[in-house]
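Hi L., both proteins are below.
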Amino acid sequence: MVSDTVTDRQDYADFFIVAILKNVMYWQKYPAVQSLEVDGLDREREGFVRAIIYGLRVAEAWAGVCQLIETLSPYMERRGHWTVWQQVLDQAFDQAQRRDDTVKGAILALLLARLSQKQSKIKETIRCYRHALRLARRAGDQYNRGRACTNLAFLYIEQGRWQRADMLCHCALTIFEKENNLHGLAHTENHLGILYLRMGQWIEDERVWSKARPHLEQACRYWQIRDDVHGLMYGYMNLGIYYFLTESPQKSLEFSKKALDCAEQAGEQLLRGSISVNIGLAYQLQQDYARAEEYSLQAEKIFRQFYNSYEMANVQKNLGVIYLRQQKFPEASHYLHLALQNWRELDQKYLLAETMLYLCECEQAKNNYLEAEKWLRQAEALLLKEDRLSQRVKAHLEKTRRSQLN
């Protein structure tokens, strides 16, 4: 009878550890991993994910596995492999906490935040960035502290917390300037540009919008120096928005199409949808509704693939408006109701009210004034609860009221 001795078990464990270490090192040196070459990574995805999962079980592989995770996160995010990557990041972050590894913990918290943000999980994203900020402070890690500051600032911009966002952006700029880190400087300049775009949207003031442009152009210069196609995608995308807001549709199309080219080069799937929405809006400004519809439908298909309900609701609202302007009322009503359903599920009352105003317009155009009145009253009830309204929505509300009275 053969028995398994302690020595045999130890030899097997050592063999297992060595095999895992070799596998992790293999993927670290793999050419497609080092270059983030999309086609090669698509073919080998199951192999490197398996290596990471096994590597997380072995203490000796910790540093190499963390490096692999950080290297491959952009690819996994852009290609939409969010479920499996969430599991990997959760396991890795749990390991960092057990090891009291604040440096790796801060990096993993940042990656978790970025992934949550792509899935529109805003509360979870803010929680992860705050966690990253605390860990980076404890570790004395200035670079990742700057990253947490600038990325948290972006979320506060989206929530209209502009003073807090401005403070965090300037804190990040100070850090990145001391570190001479062009990557961080580019993202922070980009976020400051977005801050002024958002503020300008609320007050419809070109003097505020004009402050956005130099920050966005500076961000693009930094990304061009670094030959960073993915970063340039964001810069061009936001310049496209800037020119849309300042009613220069041709310039908006120019930058938005440059952004789309960059997204395709970078293998960025979800943002292709967002950029297509912007192109659709620029064509809508030119009253080229056929092209506006074409790009908006492309965006809808992408958002459906990635189950992004916020972006889906936004493009459905845009499609509703496109069909409304063409007096295709059944199609307009269909898409506006779809957007309404998504805004309700997301508890986005402001955007819900805005969509109701378009439904009111739709019913007015069909001479269904009783139904139009119903939508107007519902929209007013929601907007009265808001602390402030953007100039655009105020104007939309007043226009809809006047049309209803007439």
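That was the first. Here is the second:
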Amino acid sequence: MNIEFIESKLQEIYKELEKEVMEVLMDESLDKKQTNLRMKPLTSSKKILQNALESIKMVDKLSKEEMEK
């Protein structure tokens, strides 16, 4: 499994999420509550992707350990 490739693609997604975050933060028409409501899915998405990457790394590590036995 090419972990570096997966990480690079996730970095691209993180950059897009950061752009969306900045758009929400810069939108002066939103009050604090609206801003928070729009931020939650973005922060949750990033956390889900980070957890997925950690899971992929763990599976890859365990797979390599099994092959060495």
